[in-house]
Amino acid sequence: MQPSELLDLIRAAYGLTSDYQVMKKFGFSQAGVSNWRVNRSFPNDAILINMAEALDIHLGVLLLHSAIWRQKDPTAKAALESILNMLPYCKYPEDEEAEA
């Protein structure tokens, strides 16, 4: 996932029509949002925590996307991507609690 795709998810989830609205609603810096829009940087972990809560996405998934985006070594990047691709087949502790 590219940073711009994350912004698009936030916009869609909250019915926002501009990155400016995202910036104001969540208190993000203008420079940060601009960099994410052009895929120049990925949100830091503290921001990813807020985004995970806002989007109801498991934080680990966003942190994994962040690690993949930042990874330069092709072998390490491929290994991280393979983990990401396996996630739909994994059981999470909160899934087991919901079944009980």
Automatic annotation (TrEMBL):
Matches recorded under Gene3D superfamilies: lambda repressor-like DNA-binding domains
Signal sequence, start to end: none
GO molecular function: DNA binding
Span of domain HTH cro/C1-type: 24-62
Coiled-coil positions: none
UniProt superkingdom: Bacteria
InterPro entries linked: Cro/C1-type_HTH, Lambda_DNA-bd_dom_sf
Name this polypeptide is given: XRE family transcriptional regulator
Naturally occurring in which organism (per UniProt): Shewanella atlantica
